[in-house]
Structures are given as structure tokens and as C-alpha cells.
Write a structure and sequence with these properties.
14 helices, globular
């Protein structure tokens, strides 16, 4: 059961982190139609919101982070930013600012439009039916274990993803910008397949890695994007220059960046 949870969880992480987040929302890289189809299917496995709503809400989140216009404003508390925002009506500012978000680039993608139009059936099939039916009919898994494994996977994956909005906005260091709530949270990065390097991500949202370092152990989705890039399905991968990152962290960071710490230690030893 554990293997089933991990495999399906990894597939949906690629769809959420690499697809709806880094590709469709932030346009951090370009993808050929084959990869876009894969990303859409993998996103549907997650059982989250309609792709249009996800992209719109996340763009609003970045533009108006931790204000009344932010759908999951962390200043309203941990529970609200974690899941409460999905349980109540949106703040009027969220609705107003959301209606002004430019969605033309994603709406020009026929694969994205297909996913939005048929999301309900795609969600049911890929998030619930196939993950349960395949183990039962492919290797004779008993029904109860197949069902329980996907319930466990669904509950864990949603909470891991939500922790980016809650825990990673409240706990951690701020090596790139001390003036914002998003923080570097190693535990969230582990649970959310590389989405916990949140201080960096909010400073450089167009970076396809959503992190400065390409450490695959704590940024698994980046590894898959790099693999797709090797076969030409992902291309024009965006990332800031090392000089820009260094300039920003020295001007606005809290001094916890590894390069500054290392430099300070060297001076002390001398």
C-alpha cells in the first residue's frame, strides 16, 4: 500500500508542482503538447480545483501576497491559510482582484482549455477511479487496500500541498527577502516535493526550479522537468542569474543564506 501511495503521489506532484504551478501559472518554461497532456493528466490525479481557478487564484496570491486580496492570506491565521479559505466565501477583494488577472496566455492553450471544460470527469477518472481499479485488476490488490491507499494518499497530498500556503508562510528563514512572509521551510520542501523553498519562490517566481539549488532530494519535481528537457519536451527553462540572486539576497536577506554564512565562518577562522 505504501508503494501505491508514493507512486501516485509522485505523479500528482509532477502535475501540480511542475504543471499547473511552474508551467501554466508562472510560465517558468515551455512544454511541447506531449508534455502538456501528461501534466494535465497528472494534475487531475491530485483532485484539486479546476485548472482555471487554480491558475487565477495563484496568480492573485503572488500579486497580492498576504493581503485581503490573497485567497489564502496567512495573516488570517494558520488554519485559514491551510484549509479554511476553501471552506468559506472569498473575501470581496479576492473576487475583485481575481477578475482582473490576465488569463489570456493559458486560455490560448487548447490542452488547458480541454482540461477546464472536462475537468469534472477527468478528475473523477484520474484522481479516484483509475488509482483504485488499476491495483485491483493489474496485480490482484484487494478492494479495501486499494481504496484505503488512495484515501490516505489524497488526504496526505492535500495537506502537504496546503502546508506551502500555511507553514511555509509562517515558519522558516528568509535569506532572500525579510520583508515578506514566505519562508524557506525544509520540512515543507520534503513533504511537497520541492515547493517549500518559498522565500526564494516569491522573490523569483519565474524560476522553473522554484528554488535556488537543484537538489533533487528536496526538489524531486525539478528532476523530472530536467529529464523532460533532455528529450526536448521541456525547453526555455527560466532562472535568474547567479549575480542577480547574490545581489538580492545581500540587499534584502536575513543573512542566513549559505554563501553568507560560509563567508562569515571563513573570516572567523582567519
Amino acid at each position: 500500500m505504501g508503494l501505491q501511495v508514493y507512486v501516485v503521489g509522485t505523479l500528482q506532484a509532477i502535475g501540480v508542482n511542475g504543471g499547473i504551478h511552474r508551467f501554466w501559472t508562472h510560465r517558468a518554461y515551455k512544454a511541447k503538447w506531449q508534455l502538456r497532456v501528461i501534466l494535465l493528466i497528472f494534475y487531475c490525479i491530485a483532485g484539486m480545483n479546476n485548472p482555471f481557478e487554480w491558475v487565477r487564484d495563484h496568480r492573485v496570491h503572488h500579486k497580492y501576497t498576504d493581503t485581503d486580496a490573497d485567497p489564502h492570506n496567512s495573516n488570517r491565521g494558520f488554519f485559514f491559510s491551510h484549509v479554511g479559505w476553501l471552506m468559506m466565501k472569498k473575501h470581496p477583494e479576492v473576487i475583485q482582484k481575481g477578475s482582473q488577472i490576465d488569463m489570456s496566455n493559458v486560455m490560448a492553450d487548447p490542452i488547458f482549455i480541454f482540461g477546464c471544460k472536462y475537468f469534472l470527469i477527468l478528475n473523477i477518472v484520474f484522481a479516484f477511479l483509475l488509482p483504485i481499479l488499476i491495483p485491483v485488476y493489474a496485480w490482484n490488490e484487494i478492494w479495501s487496500r486499494a481504496v484505503m491507499s488512495q484515501i490516505l494518499r489524497y488526504v496526505l497530498s492535500l495537506n502537504f500541498a496546503w502546508s506551502v500556503n500555511s507553514a511555509a508562510h509562517m515558519f522558516g528563514s528568509k535569506p532572500y527577502n525579510t520583508q515578506i512572509n514566505p519562508s524557506e521551510n525544509r520540512l515543507v520542501a520534503f513533504m511537497a516535493y520541492g515547493e517549500g523553498w518559498h522565500n526564494y519562490h516569491h522573490v523569483f517566481p519565474w524560476d522553473y526550479k522554484a528554488a535556488e539549488l537543484g537538489d533533487y532530494k528536496l526538489n524531486i519535481v525539478t528532476m523530472y522537468i530536467d529529464l523532460f528537457a533532455k528529450i526536448g519536451w521541456a525547453y526555455d527553462l527560466k532562472q535568474p542569474s547567479a549575480e542577480l540572486v547574490k545581489t538580492v539576497l545581500r540587499k534584502k536577506g536575513d543573512g542566513s543564506h549559505w554563501s553568507i554564512v560560509s563567508e562569515a565562518n571563513n573570516k572567523t577562522e582567519q
